[in-house]
Amino acid sequence: MNKEDVIARARKLIQLRDRTTSAGEAQAAAKALAVLLDKHRLEEAEIELGTEPSLSAEGFSVDEKPLASYRRAERWRINLAVVLARHFSVAIWRRSVLGKHSIHMCGRLGDVAMLREMYRWLADDIPRLCANECKGEPFAVRWSWRSGFVLGLTESLAAARSAAVAEHRNAKMAMVLARRAADAEAFLERHLCGTLRASCAQRSGVKADQDAWARGYAAGRARTVGGQFHD
Q: Does the model's pTM come out above 0.70?
């Protein structure tokens, strides 16, 4: 086994150790990694520093940098990630290790970069808007407002996507966007090589306060979010 093969094997063991939801599988991968590194006199830091984004011939890559990390996340933040991933044709998945959770992305480099920037902006902007709209209100009101906002934003993004497709006056763009999302999911599955992963799925927002939810929904529906679509 040459050095390139050793490094490739070590990277797969690191990925398995860090991504699996099975404690036994994680321990077995960690033990195999330790034996491999000791045998070839390598350090794990050397392997990680040498890791480049996995890039396919079509330009898809898996971004190992988390989009978001948390122990106990608010549902609206996960929904926001799902909504934006769908909008930018990016595949996302959730990694859980010892009670720590993180959301990761797979897609074209440009799409992943736009999703990350948009998520960063909205994850900061939504609480700020909520603080202004629900000042002094109890937690249930603020939670409902944020949940409503994300659902409203979902429809706003869908409208923007439809408008972009209509601008091309044919169904070609819709097919390209759908294929891009499917290709990103397929590439992600190949990259993970069967490793267990927790999926991210959008769930219904909390409506503990119907009025706050409706106000949040209206604000999200009115929000204009940019996004580039290209072949």
A: no
